[in-house]
Amino acid sequence: MHRQLIVNGDDFGLTPGVNSAISECARDGVLRSATLMANGPAFDDAVRKAKDTDRLGVGIHFTLTGLKPLSEPGRLPVLAAGNGRLPSSLSALIDIALVRKEARGEIRRELFAQAEKVFDSGIVPTHFDSHKHVHILPVVVDVLIEIAERYSVKWIRKPFEDPRSIRFFADVEEGSRGGFLKQYLRALCSRPAHCLFRSRIAKSGLRTPDYFHGLSSTGVLSERVMARLAESVKPGINELMVHPGYLDAELRAMNSRLSLSREREREILVSEDTKSLMENRAIQLIHYGEVKL
Fold first, then answer.
1. Which partner for 76 in 80, 104, 198, 253 could form a disulfide, CB atoms 3.0-4.6 Å apart?
2. Residue 115 lies in a domain
3. C-beta of residue 216 within 8 angstroms of C-beta of residue 168
4. Residue 259 lies in a domain
């Protein structure tokens, strides 16, 4: 069985600098896939770059936290209460979804609006995933399944990392190890949702990659960690989540914890060493639309 790897750049559409880095990593590096934020401030720029970038498969990065919704805030009185923005975090979204039953209809309305915007732009999505992996929540994944059925999308990210990724700890730079452990523990905390997620996806007919990588290394990716990740790519379909970008004024203004790490990820993804790692391991770099079964 072949080792197939989908290197996916999340947050396509967040800022022009993120868009430029994703396009560059697809053109000159190992990235072959990206997921588009329909409510991202730089959505139109991302669509233009996607259409101009060969070999870049584009999916939808459904976003229910942090940004402004596509729906008018008045149509989301629970989900976008107060300042007209979506909940600030996954935990805040969970609190709203659990306590306020009317939030479920609002979640469906906003997710469909995001899907429709992407399709209306002329992009035919290769797959679905979500910002902060909110689709581990049944109320979210059920809607994504409905959208996938309507638009004949066949693939969705399985956002559950192998607990054995703790073995990467020694390869993380000392100053970044606290961040790695925090991400690793978050990944462990999401594991109880795996069984329910897997059951829903199996019934839906959607497909997921066999293996998912990159959750614990978010924000702390280094050359050594990338080398270890390449060694961990197994026969079958693998996905590696990455967040490359240029630190432009728009990204600085967002005060994202990933602001500085994005430029380093970009450098790693276009480096000759990384390309050699993939070649030496006989790893086939693909996007979701190129999966060989």
1. 80
2. no
3. yes
4. yes
Q: Of all residues in the chain, what percent carry a pLDDT higher than 90?
A: 80
Q: What is the pLDDT of residues 237-281, one digit of tens each?
A: 999 999 999 999 999 998 788 888 999 999 999 999 999 999 999
Q: Which domain holds residue 208?
A: 3-59+121-131+153-290
Assign residue 46 a region: left if phi > 0, alpha if psi is -120 to 50, beta otherwise? Answer: alpha
Which residues, in sequence order, are CB contacts of 154 under 8 Å at separation 6+?
127, 148, 206, 207
Alpha-carbon distance of 23 to 166, in angstroms, equals 31
Distance in angstroms (rounded) separating the CA atoms of residues 121 and 265: 28
* Domain containing residue 253: CATH number: 3.20.20.370
36, β-bridge pairs:
12, 60
**pLDDT score for 293:** 64
